[in-house]
Amino acid sequence: MRSLSRKAFKACLGQTFAPSRWFQIDQSRIDAFAATTDDHQFIHVDPEAAAQTQFAGTIAHGFLTLSMLSAMYYDAVPAIDGAELGVNYGFNKLRFLSPVKGGAYVRGHFTLTTVRQIKDDQLTNIWDVSVEIKGQERPALVAEWIGQQYF
Fold first, then answer.
1. C-alpha to C-alpha distance for 46 and 109, rounded to whole angstroms
2. Alpha carbons 25 and 101: distance in angstroms, whole number
3. What is the pLDDT of residue 2?
4. First vs last Cα of the chain: how many Å apart?
5. 124: CB partners within 8 A, 6+ apart
6. Contact 106, 141 (CB under 8 A)
7. Could you tell me what percentage of the chain is helix, strand and coil, using 3-state DSSP and rounding each to the nearest 5?
8. Fewer CB near the terminus (10 Å): N or C of the chain?
9. Rounded Cα–Cα distance for residues 58 and 46 (Å)
10. Where are the domains positioned within the chain?
11. d(CA 35, CA 2)
12. How far apart are CA 46 and CA 14, in angstroms?
């Protein structure tokens, strides 16, 4: 993946980056997330019972879809030269709009809306993000995501 200087990154304000690659949300990923978070609601982990619901099968946890943002970000957004690390700072807005069915493919879209130089060695960035579900118009989620980079 290419990288950008800090100056070039700041010049990307308002830019929508190319979407990330597609990530499959298969049942093994859903089950692993359920085990990690102790959220074993049947709609996520019991294909037989979930088949009897309006979803006609299992769906991913909303927070699983949300947690995929990091991998999608690393895939879609160039690194910033000299950045030692980046951290999540939080969300101003977050909505889960559509369920992600087991086996579906999702990818992230990122628009840089704010860049603030906090200190010489720290940037705070705000991103408009959405997670697209392959073959569907309505996204899985939309959010305003805040991140920080340290240099």
1. 30
2. 8
3. 86
4. 19
5. 89, 114, 115, 116, 118, 146, 147, 148
6. no
7. 25, 40, 35
8. N
9. 7
10. 3-150
11. 35
12. 42
Among candidates 89, 72, 70, which has minimal Cα distance to 150? 89
Q: Report DSSP letters for 63-118, one per residue.
A: HHHHHTHHHHHHHHSPEETT--EEEEEEEEEEEE-S--BTTEEEEEEEEEEEEEEE
Phi, psi of 33 (to 5 degrees): -65, -40
SS3 98: coil
Closest CA to 68 of 148, 143, 149: 143
What's the confidence (pLDDT) of residue 105? 99
Residue type, 54: Q
C-beta of residue 1 within 8 angstroms of C-beta of residue 18: no
The sign of the torsion formed by the CA atoms of 45, 48, 49, 55 equals positive
The mean of the pLDDT values for the chain is 97
Instruction: Give yes or no for residue 1 having a pLDDT over 80.
Output: no
Instruction: Find the mean pLDDT for residues 61-76.
Output: 98
**Top-tier CATH class for 3-150:** alpha beta
